[in-house]
Design goal:
26% of the residues lie in helices and 30% in strands. It has 197 residues and is α/β, with parallel strands linked by helices. It is globular, with a radius of gyration of 15 Å.
Length: 197
C-alpha cells in the first residue's frame, strides 16, 4: 500500500460527509462505499453513526452484509462510531427485530444506553493511545459496551461505562468524534490502516 491509504465510509445512511472530511484531514484518501465492488477497492472502512437497524437492513438490501463480514473477518481495518459500534459487536443485548451485526469485536453492546435523542451530550473522554489530552466525544442516542471478551481491549470509559474498544484491526467508539473538528481518532485509525497494509 502507498503512504496514503484509501479508507471508505459505508454510505448507506448516517453522517457520512463528516467522516469523509475527518479522514481527509488525517491524510487518507476517503471515499463513500455503497457496493461490494467499492468495498473491494478500500484498505479500511468507517461504519458511521446513524440508525443501526436501518443500516443493517440497507446493507442486506445492497448485498453488502456478506462482503463486509468477509473483509472484517479477513482483517480489514474497520472503525465503527455509535451505530457503527453496534454493527461491530458480536452480540447486541436488545436487538430490534431483523437487526443483524457484522461482528468483529468480542463485545456485548446495549443500544441507546445513554438515553434518547434529547439526552444527547458532549463529554471529554480519555482514550488510551491518543496523545494530547482527552477527546471531545459527542454522545447521541449512544450505545455502551456491557462487557468485552478476552480478545477485546477497553481503551476508554465514561461514567463507569465502556465507550471505546479495540480488537486487532477493529476499533469502535460509542461517541461521534467526527462532529467535533478534533480528528485525532481518525488519524489513529488511519495509522491502523497503514500498519495493516
Amino acid at each position: 500500500m502507498h503512504d496514503t491509504p484509501v479508507i471508505g465510509v459505508l454510505a448507506l445512511q448516517g453522517d457520512v460527509r463528516e467522516h469523509l472530511i475527518a479522514l481527509a484531514s488525517a491524510d487518507a484518501l476517503a471515499r463513500p462505499v455503497r457496493r461490494p465492488e467499492e468495498l473491494a477497492e478500500v484498505d479500511g472502512l468507517v461504519l458511521p453513526g446513524g440508525e443501526s437497524t436501518t443500516m443493517s437492513k440497507l446493507a442486506a438490501l445492497f448485498g453488502m452484509l456478506d462482503p463486509l463480514r468477509e473483509r472484517i473477518a479477513a482483517g480489514m481495518p474497520v472503525y465503527g462510531t455509535c451505530a457503527g459500534m453496534i454493527l461491530l459487536a458480536d452480540k447486541i443485548l436488545d436487538p430490534r427485530s431483523g437487526q443483524e451485526t457484522l461482528g468483529g469485536i468480542d463485545m456485548i453492546v446495549r443500544r441507546n444506553a445513554f438515553g434518547r435523542q434529547n439526552e444527547s451530550f458532549e463529554a471529554a473522554v480519555e482514550v488510551a493511545g491518543i496523545d494530547g489530552g482527552p477527546v471531545e466525544g459527542v454522545f447521541i442516542r449512544a450505545p455502551w459496551v456491557e462487557s468485552v471478551g478476552a480478545g477485546a481491549k477497553v481503551i476508554a470509559e465514561h461514567g463507569g461505562h465502556i465507550v471505546a474498544v479495540r480488537q486487532n484491526n477493529a476499533l469502535a467508539t460509542s461517541f461521534h468524534p467526527e462532529l467535533t473538528g478534533d480528528h485525532r481518532l481518525h488519524a489513529y485509525f488511519t495509522e491502523m490502516v497503514r500498519a495493516a497494509g
